[in-house]
Amino acid sequence: MTSTLPLHMYIRPLISEDAQSVSELETKGFPPEERASPENIQFRLAVCPELCSGLFIRDVEGGEVKGEKLIGHMLGTKIPESTDASKPAFITRAAMGKVHDESSTTVGIHSVVIAPEYQKKNLATLLLTDYIQKLSNQEVGQRIVIIAHEPLVPFYERIGFQVVGENEDVSQDPAFGKSKWCDMVRELVKEEYDN
Ligand SMILES: CC(C)(COP(=O)(O)OP(=O)(O)OC[C@H]1O[C@@H](n2cnc3c(N)ncnc32)[C@H](O)[C@@H]1OP(=O)(O)O)[C@@H](O)C(=O)NCCC(=O)NCCS
């Protein structure tokens, strides 16, 4: 892991105008069967930009800002609650579509990606930590859930996610069924500040 971080870096919610850059980054990060379609990206950025976070670098030349470049993103929606009230909702193939249930207390993360040339600099950790902190303090929901390839489980555990079990819905899809997917959950707890 290198400690050299990109200059002029910032995180902001993604909006519809970012859809093309998000789509390009999905293509770099995921094989075709796992990446979000342009339609799903447009839907998520239009309906719940507060759950879609982008990591950008500013392109600065001689003190002048020339533009910005998306180098990482996370896409989330609120997924429908479980029909069994004793169990939290988890990501299903249906929830990966154009689905956002504003009344739900569970945020499902559909995508986390960092551009290959910026990986292993702690940037996914930074983006996820920022996301968790913002959602916790804004009381957007009670928990975040994600499905993770087994090798990435220790990475998400370091950020406070816990493994709940194998996701059986997603593994029924032949495109996803090639590897084991784990359901993971991170409860959102509001930080208290002293006056
Ligand atoms: C997974 C991903 C987001 C991590 O981004 P990153 O900025 O490099 O992550 P960080 O620098 O914060 O943390 C790096 C850690 O991630 C874990 N990690 C990353 N890729 C991994 C992989 N293929 N297998 C196992 N662990 C991996 C390791 O624990 C690594 O720590 P290490 O360098 O000490 O081994 C990035 O590799 C990526 O975009 N991959 C393609 C898309 C993807 O698979 N997304 C996750 C599923 S939604």
From TrEMBL:
Residues 9-183 form the N-acetyltransferase domain. The keyword Transport does not apply. One of its GO terms (cellular component) is cytoplasm. It holds the Pfam family Acetyltransf_10. This is LAMI_0H12398g1_1. The keyword Transferase applies. Keywords: Acyltransferase, Transferase. GO terms for molecular function: aralkylamine N-acetyltransferase activity.
